[in-house]
Records
---
Amino acid sequence: MTNQYHSSIVKKHKTLPARVMQFSTPHGNVLTPAFMPVGTRAMLNYLTPTDLKAAGSEIILGGNTYHMLVAPGMDVLQAVGGMHRFMGWDKAMLTDSGGFQVLSLSKKGQICLIDEEGAHFKHPITGKIIHLNPHTSIGTQKIIGADIIMAFDQCTPETGGREAALAALDRTHRWLLLCKEEQEKNPNSAYGLRQALFGIIQGGSFRDLRDTSTEFVVNLDLDGIAIGGEVIGFDMPKTAEIIDWVRPMLPANKIRYTMGVGLNPQDLIDVVAKGIDIFDCVAPTRNARHGTLYHGDLVERDGWLAFEGERISIKKGLYAKDDQPLMQDCTCYTCQRFSRAYLHYLFKEGLIAYFHLASIHNVHVMQMTCAKMREIMLRDD
Ligand SMILES: [Zn+2]
């Protein structure tokens, strides 16, 4: 494997802005569209690296900077040679900068002060103050050692109006310059492997702010570009609209990442149709845990794809004697071997096996959806 990061277009869709991209990392190549299962705390709930690979995952979001600083801490990660080795994942990995946690922790009323210097947290157990700023966020991500690292940003809340969106955007831009400076000192991880740095476009739901932010981020010529903010992935019609605003300004050969998209398989299809390449979401595993399982058909229509179906709420009594698999055409381990009746039983009894089998299915459906989109575009002449 080469110690470099490089992205290029493999194939464009005939009519839509959708495309198949390839990017190379020191931990292997990734073909897009690619869904990244989320292991915020250096583990995927109920899934092993073998399960993730069996589903077709080539990249994961393998840990959040804030959580990793809290536990196990950077001295542990550095001692064991980084996050890939620590969690037994040898393919590509992206880490979050901690920006989103700054927003969610401050919302939950936990001690988190945010100012121009960054965010200041109190360690939940030791009480020690943790400073997250562009310098420490990038430094921490170098010790984590992911292949793609994210600029430290201030995620835009949807509640503060234009003033809050503008303030978050200005600060995000100032911090981005510092992140880039830090990255240029040494583009490699603490283990000597090349890391790609992605910048994040903010601007909330305001078109002029999104335009300003896009221009700023694109001009810095970073390795890839993310579209962030609380609205992304949460409000899908608005997400699609925002992508349409910014897409004409984005360079064609760089990876585009919508952060937090993937509540349903159809959400992936919708953003890819708009020209997005990668995305992450905790929803597939969280839904599985709560008994909500993806169910539907991947239907090709007019040269593109739709996920037609409804979710299965496995706790419902109607599945108690249902001998069918969760989803007829699903090739996952769970659907190949077990019935809805069995999963219903495991769920009702609170048996641990349920969480494993259900998570396998939900992540597999997301990856099948990506594989199908790639297949359509690659065969399309
Ligand atoms: Zn399945």
---
Amino acid sequence: MQQSDRLSTSRSAAVPATADLIRLDTGSALRRVKSPPVNIPISLPLLPRWDELAAWVRQIDRSRVYTNRGPLCSELERRLESHFLGRQTQATSVCLTASGTSGLIASLLALDLEPGSLCVLPSWTSVATASAVVAAGLIPYLIDVDVDSWALDPARVDAELGQMPSRPCAVIPVSPFGAPVDVTVWREFSRNSGIAVVIDAAAGFDSVTPSDIPVVVSLYATEPLGVGEGGFVICTDPGFIERIREVTNFGFTSTRIVHHMGLNAKLSEYHAAIGLAQLQKWRDTRRTWLRVASTYRAAFAEYPDIQCLPGYGKSWTSSTAVFRFIDRSASEVAAKLDRYKVESRRWWQRGVNYHPAFADAACGDLTNTNRLADETLALPCYLTLRDTAIKSVVKAVTSVMASE
Ligand SMILES: Cc1ncc(COP(=O)(O)O)c(C=O)c1O
């Protein structure tokens, strides 16, 4: 398993210019900062402007098709298939969904799993993953993540199978904050165990590797490619994607007969219009996400007690900038950043098991989840975040770190 990155680029490129820091450059004495000069929110989504959408919306006006997998949805699915085909040789199929959560529910339903059986998921994820498991009629079983990759390790799932109350029917590995998930090891796990795998890569638009394992991506407004509310399921098995189309359309098959329960989880044509406009400028958008990520990465390079996920800001990027403050309390760091008017967030709070709705979920030992919950914090990350603002955030963080 790869180590969390130690951010080992040279610090000289990273040290903020004093002029950019204005009055934040007051050393570690927080009390000396009387009126913080910055007010930097954690997130500031940016969807296409009207002029970028107009041509697509006019098509909706003309066609008067507003949903039910209309022409814009079909066009966006086709373009997403070509986009991801660039990463591999095998053709891939995409089905758009109303959200990432409904894409997860639909994927579990499409697998025709035994109702009431166990579904393994990491405790270190969004409550959305666990909610999808319950909505699909399965029982969540929480497993701890690896402390360096922040993700489920198939070897650990394998090792814990014997102590679960019954054999699970499925596992949902989760991409932490957009990090790549190794599909090869999960395919092997699935082949050897006979347990189905669905990957939750909600924030993973930039890191998806299509395979015969279904991957679910969110298109929520703050995700790397956002449409407001939306998502998609991607898989190299066209038959599976056809099942997703049925499940997300009340279960209707081509004969209009429903054999298995379904949902209404279709994406509207208006959201598809936003997706088409977003996809057209993805290269520029990606470059900007990468600039934000690599600037943070370089800036924290010489702080061995500040870590990010392996490859973040190098081989992949995302719309959340989550860092681990080794042996520090993320809540305390957050409270001190507040005094600099820098917003931060414990993105997944204390993990799924912390929420009363899932407090009774069966689980193994959750030491790493609790550690990551204590030590990780998301810093401001959005497309219009300027370098000067990132430098102010970095200066605030390093001042807080130096203050004890
Ligand atoms: C890991 C994870 N899975 C699923 C979701 C749900 O995605 P959506 O908001 O599109 O339903 C989210 C986002 O909230 C998430 O972070």
